[in-house]
Backbone:
């Protein structure tokens, strides 16, 4: 298979960075990268954009690209799963104290998932880890007809991989991000002091046909996560 040039450059730079370039080190300029790797400016820009999306570098207008803080996972506007976020940083995603229960949707949950009140819903609770370190507390509700009776987190550790495999791939989500603090129980699960700051991310996710596949509330450690959002000025004529 032919790997596009930008993908090759992305992977070479990724290896360099992960081999131990300290956070905030400047990357070579676009021109230097063009010369060193014998590629066009467009290829360099595409590779750098992907590395920004991976959370490995950040760009400062007029100053260049710099290595991001490795302790932090930078989330972008792309819809990704926890497993993808962690793997893109070359760490191993995992879960501890995972539980799966089947419940009935109350009126509120039913209206969020657009199912009938009382319909079966699968409720998952997980402490998500990266290389064994707790990163996020996740509570997810999935319509019962999406997950078969024998669905098990032991054999299917990534919910999004599973949804992909049954043709219900998550395509679009509405997210609300709020600042919060962790209570004693949450903090103990995430291995940080009580009252530590966290980001609470509420996500309602739909598949390609616009059918809801999950409602999720994730609590991310604020010392390990940030969100990067590109905003564009509307020009009024
Ligand atoms: C993130 C999202 C959740 C989603 C999860 C799936 O944490 N905030 O809404 O359920 O990813 O991750 P995985 O596919 O690893 O189970």
Residues:
């Amino acid at each position: 298979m032919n790997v596009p040039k930008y993908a090759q450059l992305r992977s070479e730079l990724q290896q360099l960075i992960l081999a131990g370039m300290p956070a905030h080190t400047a990357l070579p300029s676009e021109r230097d990268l063009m010369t060193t790797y014998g590629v066009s400016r467009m290829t360099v820009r595409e590779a750098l954009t992907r590395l920004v999306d991976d959370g490995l570098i950040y760009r400062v207008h007029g100053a260049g690209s710099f290595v991001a803080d490795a302790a932090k996972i930078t989330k972008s506007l792309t819809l990704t799963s926890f497993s993808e976020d962690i793997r893109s940083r070359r760490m191993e995603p995992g879960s501890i104290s995972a539980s799966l229960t089947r419940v009935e949707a109350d009126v509120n949950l039913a209206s969020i998932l657009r199912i009938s009140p009382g319909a079966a819903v699968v409720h998952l609770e997980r402490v998500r880890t990266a290389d064994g370190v707790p990163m996020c507390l996740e509570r997810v509700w999935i319509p019962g007809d999406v997950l078969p009776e024998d669905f098990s987190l032991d054999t299917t550790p990534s919910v999004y991989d599973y949804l992909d495999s049954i043709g219900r791939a998550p395509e679009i989500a509405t997210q609300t991000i709020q600042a919060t603090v962790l209570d004693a129980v949450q903090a103990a699960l995430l291995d940080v002091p009580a009252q530590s700051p966290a980001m609470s991310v509420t996500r309602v996710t739909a598949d390609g046909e616009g059918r809801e596949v999950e409602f999720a509330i994730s609590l991310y450690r604020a010392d390990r996560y940030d969100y990067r959002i590109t905003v564009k000025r509307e020009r009024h004529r």
User: Anything to note?
Assistant: The longest strand covers residues 93-104.
